[in-house]
Amino acid sequence: xxxxxxxxxxxxxxxxxxxxxxxxxxxxxxxxxxxxxxxxxxxxxxxxxxxxxxxxxxxxxxxxxxxxxxxxxxxxxxxxxxxxxxxxxxxxxxxxxxxxxxxxxxxxxxxxxxxxxxxxxxxxxxxxxxxxxxxxxxxxxxxxxxxxxxxxxxxxxxxxxxxxxxxxxxxxxxxxxxxxxxxxxxxxxxxxxxxxxxxxxxxxxxxxxxxxxxxxxxxxxxxxxxxxxxxxxxxxxxxxxxxxxxxxxxxxxxxxxxxxxxxxxxxxxxxxxxxxxxxxxxxxxxxxxxxxxxxxxxxxxxxxxxxxxxxxxxxxxxxxxxxxxxxxxxxxxxxxxxxxxxxxxxxxxxxxxxxxxxxxxxxxxxxxxxxxxxxxxxxxxxxxxxxxxxxxxxxxxxxxxxxxxxxxxxxxxxxxxxxxxxxxxxxxxxxxx
Length: 433
What we know:
single chain; alpha+beta; 25% strand; globular; membrane; transmembrane; transmembrane helix; SpoIID/LytB; Amidase enhancer
């Protein structure tokens, strides 16, 4: 998911008396309702023991030898409720170093399989932490599991298998500035992140084995939160953990299904309709919300060098990238479709594709207010907002939390028509049978 960090400078929380006097968002359709308990992990699935292929386990200093390989990794989302997270930094890596329960392992691509420490080659390898933790290239992922499979092009593909709540805590710490985020904002962000994960995995599982990327393609995940001394003194780790625990299992639904709801750093004053940015069928449809505080702080300006524009042109298959002409915009003025011109003619392009080609940070949003071409081939661009503008606005959510709104009220403001539901973990449903 493309979400950038909000400005960390915040004002102190308002007093309780002032909170009661301040205006709240419209109720009714924009208020989050409580739904029924819904099992979202394959409601008819039979829970089986963990079906590991090559699990490297440590037992009193000895290592159990791998068992027979399965043709492909198991679907841990539906059978065990674990979140499969693909590690972008290790896509097509020829060698991956893993430390599990204090032992080091080297996994390498060899032919059509994965080579183990002992030189044997298997279709895929699962490494699981049993008594300690799992470290991937120096990053401690706690009691996670890792699977390495041959990448379709070359090298390896690496996935981390994570507990849902541990994954949510990692996403919140990566996607949000925690320094002075109020509890209600942390809780709202946790529910939004969990909803996106469950909704996206549920949707992708209909076509293939489900997974999530660890970057802007889905949600940022960099491992468990590791605070410095100042953050620990401020109590940030405890506040983060409390927010995730307080909302454990809670997800947003539309039409009875977990919703892959979106969120972003700053809307610039008004959020965008999901259907306009991501197309039909996107959770949230045409719902939007206003953010008066974000409107004040949401402006930006960028100077785009000629080299940056030329690189984007090549990505888009053009000879030159001149001033885009907006052919479609949302009600706020956020570009949806643009026309790009070069010597070969005019090409229509979704505004998000233009932003992707230039770089998510180079062009903070598609809400462009001015685009000025300069004589040297560079351009000066101004605009509003940071991110795609759909769903929860992190700047605005912080403002509402400081005005006394609870997490559910914040979510009701940004996701009108959504219902709040609690997912049932696989192990819990198995125990109830």
